[in-house]
Design goal:
The chain is an alpha/beta fold and about 475 residues long. Helices cover about 45% and strands about 15% of the residues. The protein folds into 3 domains: about 70 residues, Orthogonal Bundle (Arc Repressor Mutant, subunit A); about 130 residues, Aspartate Aminotransferase, domain 1, CATH 3.90.1150; about 230 residues, Aspartate Aminotransferase, domain 2, CATH 3.40.640. Bound molecules: pyridoxal-5'-phosphate. The site of pyridoxal-5'-phosphate (PLP) has 13 residues, from helix 7.
Length: about 475
């Protein structure tokens, strides 16, 4: 029996090595179709199941991807032989959020032009349509400046809400402009959403690791969290969510719709539906953060939770910060059920978002240039992620684990357990490089040997050199 098992291991490993060899030699390039299961089975005199097993393992390593009814294809990460981080294992306990002490070190360096910007997830103004947007702002101000030097109603400027609802329609989200309130960035949308469905002391279930700004919002609202095990490919572990909903008093969940920051993971539509079914069963609202949804590397924009089940209580949050204008601070929150409460909160916090900026953005969206702009920035981010991944693969120690995001523009690296990423952060600053240390992304101490690298700038020599320097610090 043991000999048979060894033989089986040997066989599928041969198939795996054969495919990776073809990729190494360049015979199989990114995007090409791998030989069919049948072809491989006949050629290597093994069963189709053995080939299937080999291909599934290569899929786990992001070397191949299965496409429905078409077979297996070589991915963009096929030349990367560093493994992915596994499922995270946060402590299964409800905790108070105390994160601010870990965050402000990085924020100090947010716009320091002397540093290589691998720390904050901010796209370069070169990649954003900054000068194009400047022209719209200048024209809007020149033509209608007086008209927009006013307060708007808390819900926000109608033309912008109409444009947002039109875009949402494309991925099956049927929203009336009245179901949308414009906020000051996604941060305010998340803040208002949490204020709407929770009270201080309540427990919110979140992904682990998660975006540090969200942790700060939770802290400032006096909320507690339960961090859920999260996979670097397909998001939260559904069994852990089910257990938490049964055994703990969860008041709300807050998950990324797509491409969690820092993991870049994406839940399948079926998994999202299963999450919604569970939440309906337990009558728990979901707040979703879709800020990275438009930055998909695949051909289709993933649907957010809100578009998948009308019965679920979902509050949708997003903004234009990652795709057009972080400086405009324009985001939005969508809900029909909670709109009155949302508007009360919005009025109390900032009354309304800046009207001139909303009008300029609405004009930009109406002009029809946003889709081609999105195609361009998606190409840039894919390229940056690709080049950074290859550089890390080349220079970092072989035991480094690296995420394979399917969207967004950040990479998550797990370093050897004895590396202290706070120390790397300080040493990197001395070398003129800014990175984000892993402990910012959780209330736990689980990510002390992790770092997040942002790929928001067009790749050049300076970035290649910085990755080499970082790898030396890590070693
Ligand atoms: C996941 C996530 N949500 C929200 C935000 C903040 O968005 P905004 O700048 O629109 O407030 C960020 C910014 O990094 C983010 O990564």
């Amino acid at each position: 029996m043991e000999a048979e098992e060894k033989e089986l291991t040997y066989r599928y490993e041969i198939i795996m090595n054969f495919i990776t060899d073809l990729i190494h030699k360049g015979t199989l390039g990114a995007g090409m179709r791998a030989p069919s299961l049948r072809e491989m089975a006949t050629q290597h005199k093994v069963s189709i199941t053995t080939v299937q097993q080999a291909y599934r393992l290569l899929e786990d390593r992001a070397v191949l991807e299965a496409r429905p009814k078409s077979g297996f294809f070589v991915t963009q990460y096929s030349q990367v032989f560093l493994e992915k981080p596994g499922l995270s294992t946060p402590p299964n306990e409800v905790v108070n959020v105390e994160i601010s002490g870990r965050i402000f070190d990085l924020i100090t360096y947010i716009n320091d032009p002397k540093l290589v910007p691998l720390g904050c997830a901010i796209p370069s103004t070169e990649i954003l349509a900054s000068s194009q947007l400047d022209r719209f702002l200048a024209r809007t101000a020149r033509v209608n400046g007086k008209k927009y030097n006013i307060y708007s109603e808390p819900r926000g400027y109608i033309d912008l809400r109409v444009e947002i609802s039109r875009r949402a329609m494309r991925w099956g989200q049927s929203l009336s402009p009245d179901d949308i309130a414009i906020t000051c960035g996604c941060t305010e949308a998340l803040f208002i959403a949490l204020r709407t469905v929770t009270n201080p002391g309540d427990v919110v279930a979140i992904e682990s690791p998660t975006y540090f700004g969200l942790l700060l919002v939770l802290e400032s609202l006096g909320l507690k969290t339960l961090e859920l095990p999260t996979d670097a490919s397909d998001g939260i572990e559904i069994e852990a969510l089910a257990t938490a909903l049964q055994s703990k008093s969860i008041k709300a969940c807050l998950f990324a719709s797509s491409y969690n920051n820092p993991l870049g993971c994406l839940m399948s539509e079926d998994k999202k539906k299963a999450v919604l079914d569970l939440l309906i069963q337990h009558d728990v609202p979901l707040i979703e953060d879709d800020i990275y949804g438009d930055i998909h590397f695949g051909p289709e924009r993933p649907k957010p939770f809100i578009a998948l089940n009308d019965q679920a209580d979902v509050i949708y949050c997003s903004s234009f910060s990652k795709t057009i204008a972080p400086g405009y601070r324009i985001g939005w929150i969508a809900t029909s059920k909670h709109m009155q409460k949302v508007l009360k909160e919005k009025f109390a916090i900032t009354l309304c978002a800046p009207v001139l900026l909303q009008a300029a953005l609405a004009d930009f969206l109406k002009s029809g240039g946003y889709d081609s702009h999105l195609r361009r920035i998606r190409r840039s981010f894919t390229d940056n992620i690709d080049r950074m991944t290859r550089a890390i693969n080349q220079y970092f120690p072989k035991n480094t684990l690296i995420s394979r995001p399917s969207g967004g523009f950040v990479l998550w690296l797990e370093l050897s357990a004895d590396v202290d990423s706070r120390q790397i952060f300080s040493q990197a600053l001395q070398e003129g490089i800014c990175i984000a240390p892993g402990d910012m992304f959780s209330t736990s101490d689980n990510y002390k040997n992790f770092i997040r690298l942002s790929c928001g700038y067009p790749w050049n020599e300076k970035f290649e050199k910085s990755i080499k320097t970082l790898s030396e610090l890590v070693r």
